[in-house]
Amino acid sequence: MSQNIRMGLIGLGSMGRHHARVIRETEGLELAAVADPNGDAWGVAKDLEVLPDVEALIGAGIDAAMVAVPTVYHEDVALALAAAGVHTMVEKPIAHSADAGRRVAAAFEGAGLVGAVGYVERCNPALLELRTRIADGELGEVFQISTSRQGPFPGRISDVGVVKDLATHDVDLTAWIAQSPYATVAAHVAHRSGREHEDMVSVTGRLANGIIVNHLVNWLSPRKERQTIVTGERGAFVADTAQGDLTFYANGTIATEWERVAAFRGVTEGDVTRFAISKREPLRVEQEHFRDALNGDGSGIVTMAEGVHTLTVVEAVLESAATGRTVKLEHVDVAG
């Protein structure tokens, strides 16, 4: 597309307000129309009329859309946009269920449209740098990926639990870093705050390529933590995604004379390197990737097929927690 892409935004809540700002600031995009049946509580529409629904948004003559409505409405809104021939990015998760996600993905694929899912953590500067270095072979063979995502309850969440809201980020970024889908998961959840949905989860699993994974996620910690650790044959990368920092802990190469340590058949501590990396706002990078996909380069987006796989894994996590069993996932091709 040689001219500015006319973007429509539906959902002007806690996430939509940020998308409105970033779309306006992204070169090549024009925020042409906004919609929210509940109005514009954050005052982000500015000179644009706040339209009542997705049909009115489509009627404004948009090229592409950003969907930031509550999860329960993702399917209906996305299917309407697909039917109208509108390229779309849907905030994570792709839909309220994996079956609904499959219907959404099939609709966009069948219409030949760009369809993406908004997993903004993939655009975190620490994770982008981490994935590049792993792809370049700096870690050697990857053995394990461990994530921790803990902190206080976010008042914006009302329709899902911690698994579908937060753990879904870790499932997506883990499969992306490893370039492998999940094979098995086992999980435990807890309800400690009196809400309908779970507020704590502990997950262990294995990817199809043999990497073992674990995720610790909750809404009940007074200490906010966002960390991804990737351990491999040459050391470990530690990504602090709250700060956008990446540190490498290398395996030691200097022989030790301490008998008790030397007798241990494993690695020793080596050099520690904290990388200086460019730190751009992840949401801005995400919108640039979507713009690039609309212009023919889809390498940066999270595809809807990947979004469906992530949601399938999330449902397997909840199934495991409910049954006490390890859940095996069917191998799927998530290349997009």
Automatic annotation (TrEMBL):
One of its GO terms (molecular function) is nucleotide binding. Belongs to the Gfo/Idh/MocA family. Residues 132-329 form the Gfo/Idh/MocA-like oxidoreductase C-terminal domain. SUPFAM superfamilies: Glyceraldehyde-3-phosphate dehydrogenase-like, C-terminal domain (SSF55347), NAD(P)-binding Rossmann-fold domains (SSF51735). Residues 5-119 form the Gfo/Idh/MocA-like oxidoreductase N-terminal domain. InterPro entries: Gfo/Idh/MocA-like_OxRdtase_C, Gfo/Idh/MocA-like_OxRdtase_N, Gfo/Idh/MocA_Oxidoreductases, NAD(P)-bd_dom_sf. It comes from the Bacteria. This is Gfo/Idh/MocA family oxidoreductase. The lineage of its organism: Bacteria, Bacillati, Actinomycetota, Actinomycetes, Micrococcales. It holds the Pfam family GFO_IDH_MocA.
